[in-house]
Design goal:
single chain, 152 residues, elongated
Length: 152
């Protein structure tokens, strides 16, 4: 996983030069962070600190919204502790970088508005074999024998 992280880092370096602030750069940043977290047992505070900050910044440049949007986009990829760590890292980044604080447009973002509710699909349930037997027993009808399958 260490080699994978190094490879993703080189890809992200290239993307930052060619197409910065793109969705592809944000995606590669998340993959880079994921590889580093796998290699270092989810140690986002020390071992993957640099990668966490870089992934957050790429996500913010692509989508805006800071850690709130990053959490919504990556909630299926990372453990809840890592997502919470993303919010902590984002707060530290804003504190350390005055330009980021000035560019930050996360005010007014509602992460719940970004989530899409699953469409509830109700399928018509067909009666099962036991339901058919119960219905037949309730009506008092006996099963009919077919001439081809009857035993003499």
């Amino acid at each position: 996983h260490v080699e994978a992280c190094a490879a993703w880092t080189r890809v992200l370096d290239t993307l930052e030069q060619v197409i910065p602030s793109s969705e592809l750069a944000a995606l590669v940043g998340s993959e880079m962070l994921s590889s580093k977290l796998l290699a270092f047992h989810l140690d986002f505070r020390k071992a993957a600190r640099k990668e966490m900050r870089r992934a957050l910044l790429r996500s913010h440049q692509a989508y805006g919204g800071g850690a709130a949007v990053w959490n919504v986009i990556n909630k299926q990829l990372y453990a809840p502790s890592v997502l919470d760590g993303g919010a902590e890292a984002w707060a530290a980044m804003k504190k350390d970088t005055p330009q980021l604080k000035a560019l930050s447009s996360e005010e007014g973002y509602d992460p719940k508005a970004l989530t899409v509710a699953a469409k509830v699909v109700q399928e018509k349930v067909k009666p099962g074999f036991e339901d058919l037997l119960k219905r037949r027993a309730a009506t008092g009808k006996k099963p009919t024998e077919h001439a081809a399958t009857a035993i003499p």
